[in-house]
Amino acid sequence: MPRFRKAAVAVPEDKHPVDETLPPVKMFTSGLQHVAAMYAGVVAPPMIVGPAVGLSATETAFLMGASLFTAGLATLLQTLGFWRIGARLPFVNGVSFAGVTPMIAIGKDQGADALPVIFGAIVTAGLLGFFAAPYFGRLVRFFPPVVTGTVITLIGVSLLPVAFNWSQGGNRTAADYGSMRNIGMAALTLAIVLVLRRLLRGFLQQIAILLGLVAGTLVAIPLGMTDFDAFRSAAWVGFPTPLHFGAPQFHLAAVVSMCIVMLVCMTESTADILALGRIVDRSADARTIEGGLRADALGSAVSPLFNGFMCSAFAQNIGLVAMTKVRSRYVVAAGGGILILLGLCPKAASVIALVPLPVLGGAGIVLFGSVAASGIQTLAGAAMERGENALIVAASVGVGLIPIAAPGFYHAFPKDLLVVLDSGISTGCLVAIVLNLAFNHLGARKGAAPAPEPVPVH
């Protein structure tokens, strides 16, 4: 009997599913599934920012590889962690869409120094987030759904013009820009993605956008719309050379803009950690949230050293955990390892460069529209029946749309201010925060219902 009792104690039956390790094959395939679900989201920001700051197709492919590599590092920080860094949950980190529009605005003003200035701003914002993580829980109440929903909606809406530009061909000076062939290819890709989302189930439905990109590219090859130059010139093995585009530069306006983005990312990550904790049946306490935010921030601060951008939670992977019921954090860590290997293989990273811009545009309409839809979903829990909240959304969205609807609106303002003003996300977020403080905190009437807590974005 004692022997059997000892054996029972030795069997890790009471180990939480989050801390379980799976057989190697299942570990790899499940991790690859997470990579497939997030791949398009990781490479999309560098695909947008690269051409916007004047990079060639080859340099943009390098930037995409660096983003895959740094996303893998950030994911390992979250899942495995060390000291008080990392949520130690099946939590995927990747390049945040929230920083795309502010980075493009920085690029317009800085010219050849665009990437060093962007990287300097991200390093500063990451360090700010790292040291602010223990105190951020006290600030979350200032970022209720009325604020986060507004900002997420503006992120999606701000990115849609990029998809429209891609759909027309991407190069405004080209003879075929806006041609029926380009727009027709974008429309075909959009239709393919929608049909796949409607007909497929499970994992295949999750990667409908990726499958749509593949299908659209296959159709474009015989039409002569695919450029193989970047793929041919890419090496099979490489390393994202540290500071490839130059040492980080620190400009105040750029730093302020990216610090705002960091606060938005920390708010989203907090909501996602709480949601993931419920899904895996391991409630996220204050220390878990603090560790998760520190991993986000440290990953963001280190990322520019390897030519990557700001990192934050990928909500679509939380949905994948809920769907598959695979709760092991080591599965997601395996996915992080796969991302690092992809980042060390420039040939793999340059595959996405084969996709013609009109094909990307058609898929981008769904991808960026989904971001806006997530913001609207968040606003659904923002107690919009309260007149103050409706007014906050109206004013914030109105101000945030100015750079999109009237690009030259702030042309007479000082150049340093344009980095913030030309980003609808930054201006809309600032207006939402200030009005939320004015109406729901400083100006709150006695007995008024408190502002609801932030809700996760799926």
Question: How would you sum up this structure, described in words?
Answer:
By secondary structure, the chain is mainly alpha-helical. Helix content is 67%, strand content 1%. It contains 20 helices and two strands. It has helices at 2-10, 24-52, 57-79, 100-110, 114-139, 145-168, 180-199, 202-206, 208-220, 229-233, 252-279, 286-302, 315-324, 329-343, 346-349, 357-379, 387-400, 402-405, 415-421, 424-442; strands at 93-95, 311-313. Strands 1-2 form a two-stranded antiparallel sheet. Helix 7 runs antiparallel to helix 9 (208-220). The radius of gyration is 22 Å and the shape is globular.
What's the mean pLDDT score?
A: 81
Our estimate of the beta-strand percent is under 5%
- Summarize the amount of helix as a percent range: 55-70%
Question: Would you identify the regions where 5 or more consecutive residues have pLDDT less than 50?
Answer: 4-11, 447-458
The protein's oligomeric status is single chain
Tally of helical runs: 20
Instruction: Give me the strand/helix succession.
Output: HHHEHHHHHHHHHEHHHHHHHH
Number of strands: 2
State the separation between the terminal residues, measured CA to CA. Answer: 50 Å
Give me the side-by-side strand order of the main sheet: 1-2
> What form results from the Cα inertia axes?
globular
Class by helix and strand content? mainly alpha
> Radius of gyration in whole Å, from Cα?
22 Å
Largest sheet: 2 strands, antiparallel
